[in-house]
Amino acid sequence: MKHIISACFFLFSLSIFSQNITVTVDQNMILKEVFKQIEDQTDYKFAFTDQINTTQKYFNQKSTYKNIEIKALINELNKNNSIQFSIVGNNIFVKQKNSKAAAAKKKNKLSGQVLDENKEPVIGANIFIKELETGVTTDTKGIFSFELNRGTYTVVVSYVGFKNKEKQITVSDDVRINFNMEADSQQLEQVIVTNNKAVDVRNTQMSVNKLTMEEIKKIPSAMGEPDPLKSLLTLPGVTNAGEASSGFNVRGGAADQNLILLDGAPVYGDSHMFGFFSVFNADVVNGLDLYKGGIPSKFGGRVSSVLDVSQLTGDFENYKVNGGIGLISSRLLAQGPIKKEKGSFVLAARTSYAHLFLKLADNNNSAMFYDINAKLNYRLGTNNTIAFSGYLGNDVFDISDRFSSTYGNIMGILSWKHNFSDNLNTNLSVFYSDYNFNLGIDPENFEWDNTIKSYGFKYNWNHNTAEKLKLSYGIDGQYYDFNPGTVQPTSPDSQFNYKQLDKKYALESSAYLDFEHQITEQLNLRYGLRYSMFYRLGGEEISTYESGQAVVYNPLYDIYQEGTPTGSISYRSGETISKFDNLEPRAALSYAFNDNTSVKASYNRMAQYIHILSNTQSPLPMNIWTPSGPFTKPQLLDQYALGYFKNFKEDEYSLEGELFYKNIQNRIDYIDGADILANNNIEQVILNGKARSYGLELLFRKNTGNFTGWISYTLSRAEQKTPGRTPEEPGVANGNWYLSGYDKLHNLNIVGSYLYNPKWSFNANFSLQSGQPVTYANGYYEFGGINIPNFSLRNENRLPLYHHLDLAATYTPKPDKKKGWQSYWVFSIYNIYNRQNAASMTFATNEDTGANETRRLSIFGMVPGVSYNFKF
């Protein structure tokens, strides 16, 4: 019987092997389709290990096997493939060849870079693989990366304002390919969005505002000059301290709590002409990102926000010139190759000439500024690039023969970028930044200088350890040189003697580690840690005080007064006066319900070691930077944010909503009547407290069509608390929470753009903010025949509601002209209904009537503007 069964089995097997079938395979065919062809023509069934993915493509070329026996077919299929077929009974078993080696080689890397016509990296471009229905976005260098099995794929590259690119790519090993995008002029005319695309619902990054120069140049502004910094005020969570004021406030934070970077180097002064213009020339800026929360671990040193501004790289192939001529300022930019495809340069200059009109009108006053931007790039082969960025800006301001002022920034950064591989790249940079302010009082015959200088380096590493895990890490450090003031006489008749306030020195260093981790298709995490250290260094004399208190409370008059020095401690040059260190954890996550909807959450702790000494709510050019030390502790922030993000109607509309809460320790405030200017013992007028802010931000956008724009609204509260140090002391505002100078309960902005035809487009911007908190006199008393005002509690009152409507029209005479001289006109009206917004309110006695009166100071009424812009 046993022999009969064996014979039957042999005959059955022989009949199976003798079957002739026809099978076709090719590089676009998934394994499941090959299985089906064989199973439909034979009695065989397939069995395979969990290493085999039947939806993947394993074949390298197209082959057709006609009228072939199954055994011969198996032998053919085993050639030049990463999988092994074998027949066991009436099953065909499939496994990886040399499983360990095959597993290591299972994935191949498809990577590359997306560049625009000027060879600038396109940040946030969408890279989509049709066959897998998956995609990624490019990073800040325009680089993307996939891990794929062998096969042929259709790659689609898209980005708003550019024509789509589509290309078939065969992956049999690691492949690198670059895409050069062509501008879609028609699309550029039609689109204004705040993120250049619908919101990225899967990215963990939240609480970030992005603007491109195409957007910024279409937002109406005072003086008709496009302004990158002031354009940020149209986005949620960002306010200013009033018209013609420098600085900006983010989520209730002060202006000195913003870290401003230009190509990675810090900038300490952000304005020209006392706030009328920002230091950023719109022509040379490539883009800017404002991080309000969920701040990546690579950034540190400030507790409110990070403004990361990048300059143009420059065209590697063609020479180009563009510029603009306005009513009070003009600008010019040139760019081109140093050596084609190897090196490029950008050189931009801007200047104002309002002072010339004043002289023609026999006006001895003067106000002017200039700035110069430069950037050089050179490619040392395919893996190395060196770059230099520089900025020089200066202001000159004179009021007749009364006083004169000059101030400005100098910045330079040299960087070396090296690619070790597609998975690992580094950026090493060294920088120098200098901010100087000079004030001369002519009737008193003296001048005063203060400066802050910093020298630093950064070394950043980006490491793609796996398809779903990215790692970045690095170190940085900078040395500070603070000169709070040098007072010197300008003539023998001056009543002032030479005086040098104590210079201060400090060293700040840090190391960070940051992970981006895709847990599932829906869940993405970003987490990291920053460790920062700060050293206050000598040489310096540090005063000592009775009972160790630099500020004392006088219960008789119910006021704070300067403490009495008892001596001083002398520190040698380089000796440590104070040392601080902090761990700064960061975490963020996003959970995508689908391709259009997600929720995100973030937490970050940050430390700030340097501060601006100012008892005004709007920072002035003369404000003094000072380091943390024996009497001033570092500010520490804990911020939490939760957001909801949605795209709908095929990304035509987007909605972003966020809740945030910020808590800041060691926020300083000033005693009443504090004297800041030229104070060598500033600790005698400051008290330590804390701050908090919380609120809701909404941003609704229309991304496509002839009419585009956005509506942003913020409902928030910003408060401080400076309690007394003992039960007897009142602190500030009786030790209770009081509004900070940056509180804006309501902040509404509506921005719209309408493309009427190729020649004409129209833009509008409406802004409305709650009035700024101020302290009013709530009465007065008479002493010695003089009216003495009596003031309310700190920031208990508000300025009137702030609002204005701005309109602009852009006229392009020859919109179809793409070569040679191209030009367009911009006509604008700032504050079209002439709202007299209050910059301040003062209380005085009328000299004629003796009555008390309130006086409003307004900076702007209606301001028309026109500019002619060109390129060739």
Give the number of DSSP strands.
58
Mean pLDDT: 85
Helix-residue proportion: under 10%
Number of domains: 3
Rg for CA atoms: 33 Å
Structural class: mainly beta
> Number of helical segments?
8
Shape: elongated
Can you offer a commentary on this structure?
- Helices cover 7% and strands 55% of the residues.
- By secondary structure, the chain is mainly beta.
- It has three domains: 20-96, 3-Layer(bab) Sandwich (Phage tail protein beta-alpha-beta fold); 108-180, Immunoglobulin-like; 310-871, Beta Barrel (Maltoporin, Chain A), CATH 2.40.170.
- It has a 22-stranded antiparallel β-barrel. A five-stranded mixed sheet has the order 14-21-22-17-18. Strands 6, 9, 12 and 13 form a four-stranded mixed sheet that branches.
- Strand 24 (329-339) and strand 25 form a beta hairpin.
- The protein starts with a helix and ends with a strand.
- The model is unreliable at 1-17, 99-105 and 185-197 (pLDDT under 50).
